[in-house]
Amino acid sequence: MATSYTRLIPYVRPHRRTLTLAFLCTLGFVASMPMLAYAIERMAHFVGSGDLAGISWLSGIALVGFVGRGACQYGQDALMAKASLRVVLSLRQHVFRHLQTLDLDYFARSRTGDLSYRLTEDLDRVGEVVHKFFHQTVPDVLVLVAVLSYMLYLNVSLTLATLAIAPLVGLAIGWFGERLLTSSRRSQDRIADLAAQLTESLSGIQTVKAFAAEEYESDRFNRFARLNFQARFQSEHVKSVQYPVVGFLYALSVIAVFWLGGWQIRAGNLSGSEFVGFLAGVALLIDPIVQLTDNVNHIRQTQASLDRVFELLDETPRVRSLPTAKPLPDIRGKVQFDRVSFAYPSGAIALQHVDLQVQPGEAIALVGASGAGKSTLVKLLPRFYDPQDGRILIDGIDIQAVTLPSLRRQIGIVPQETVLFSGTIAQNIAYGRADFELAEVERAAKIANAHEFVSRLPEGYLSVVGERGVNLSGGQRQRIAIARAVMLDPKILILDEATSALDAESEALVQEALERLMQGRTAIAIAHRLATVRNVDRIVVLEKGAIVEVGSHEELLARGGRYADYHAQQFSRW
Ligand code: ADP
């Protein structure tokens, strides 16, 4: 279903005053044309009769007129541009804000390059059309109406004869517009594919090189580029057929006017000079008609971009704060999973009837084979997903009854892979806070064993990290993530142990920092290796989405069950 352009009205409405002013300027500018013609005609008269006084007063008036005309032109261009760019600005801000509220699942289904294309190129195209609509389409329609009124005033039957062809022109424009829309949709989708593949190849450039897959990637790129070329060419081709067809229809109407004109002159109902005046009107119609056809085409082509932008806006997050939600008060950190079952939207059942209680300040480790449901279990706590069945309580409060930010701000996450955002180390440690004290950052970094290496960087905490922090080692990045969690000072911690092994020294520093971080907080750790398990109060063993064993390291070893098996295998399988 095509998105209606009327959905842009709420974004245009706030700028109606600027637009009205711009229209007034347009009217002034348009009105200056006949006045100019009249002035030239008068000037010719004065020059012809050698009337110097007349020449000088008219020159004065003309100069003032030109200044006014220039001002109108400036006002029209600048104000229209400002209004349409503001429409793009507010729409873009709205789309980004909305995008961020969407579920993780949406991002799992979407491609980064495609999403960024929607927020950049697609939105720019919509902006261009908005600009064109107010800058060209509306004035063209006004000119058309004015010229037609003048023609009607001159001769009704001749005008109707000219207009007889209008429905045909309308049909032709509509028919071609439909084809243009189809090919533009294809072309926008292909270019978004291209953008998506570009993002993938560039962010995975190491893998591409490691697999010597440059040719393979180029082939993929070339295929999308060719498909885009085909779709683009199809659009252009449609247009190049459309212009002569519309031109031909227009010529038909001109021929009809000649016939009818000749016939009326012969019958004595029309004078030759009246007919010439009428023909001048017909000629004046050409420009606005050509431009309108072009604009309608542009509007149709941009429909594809409009659809892509609003498709994103129509996506509603499943996980959101209920209207009745209240902020989660400061918590002690008790966590309860109460018969929680969860399946991913794609259908895979990931957790079944999970019952688990974690006391404030307690540390537990989740252990189990890959795919057992460890990550899924911790994803439910900050409500990255909501379970289909059962409840999750924090300090006895159902997490679905509280507002999302108040919940998430009290849960710190140290992920497997630390994402560093472009900016300084300090900004990265204080991530999400616009203002912070450097001393605070330093204190957090000390606890996280990061202070030493950060101080050794050329610009210390003000050193800028690359797009993905390429200049920091794995262990250093982990310690930045730990410092981040210290800054947040949450009561509940989720630790996803890094799977990649660190060197012994780094490992010891990270481990020490983690222990400090866990002090006095409830911690749920996903253990991939033995290291984390040593420091926890209880170990929870998961298998196929269900809890199969719970106990301390010694208890579980003594029981000789699943955990003991894993342990015997030296955690080698996971
Ligand atoms: P673990 O962390 O123990 O390795 P996960 O919690 O990641 O296990 O996965 C549990 C199950 O859910 C697996 O069967 C996995 O394939 C599935 N799963 C994980 N993430 C997703 C996802 N985003 N969409 C669909 N299924 C998923």
Topology, pairings included?
Blueprint: H1 9-12, H2 16-48, H3 52-101, H4 104-109, H5 112-154, H6 156-163, H7 166-203, H8 205-210, H9 214-266, H10 272-314, E1 335-343, E2 349-358, E3 363-367, H11 374-380, E4 389-394, E5 397-398, H12 404-408, E6 411-414, E7 423-424, H13 425-429, H14 438-447, H15 451-456, E8 464-465, H16 474-488, E9 492-496, H17 504-518, E10 522-526, H18 530-533, E11 538-543, E12 546-551, H19 553-559, H20 562-568
Parallel strand pairs: 3-10, 3-11, 6-9, 9-10
Antiparallel strand pairs: 1-2, 1-4, 4-5, 7-8, 11-12
Bound molecules: adenosine-5'-diphosphate.
3D structure, described in words:
With 574 residues, the protein is of the alpha/beta class. The chain has 20 helices and twelve strands. It has helices at 9-12, 16-48, 52-101, 104-109, 112-154, 156-163, 166-203, 205-210, 214-266, 272-314, 374-380, 404-408, 425-429, 438-447, 451-456, 474-488, 504-518, 530-533, 553-559, 562-568, and strands at residues 335-343, 349-358, 363-367, 389-394, 397-398, 411-414, 423-424, 464-465, 492-496, 522-526, 538-543, 546-551. Strand 4 and strand 5 form a beta hairpin. Helix 5 (112-154) packs antiparallel against helix 6 (156-163), helix 7 runs antiparallel to helix 9 (214-266) and helix 19 (553-559) crosses helix 20. Bound molecules: adenosine-5'-diphosphate. Adenosine-5'-diphosphate binds at residues 108, 344, 346, 348, 350, 368, 370-376.
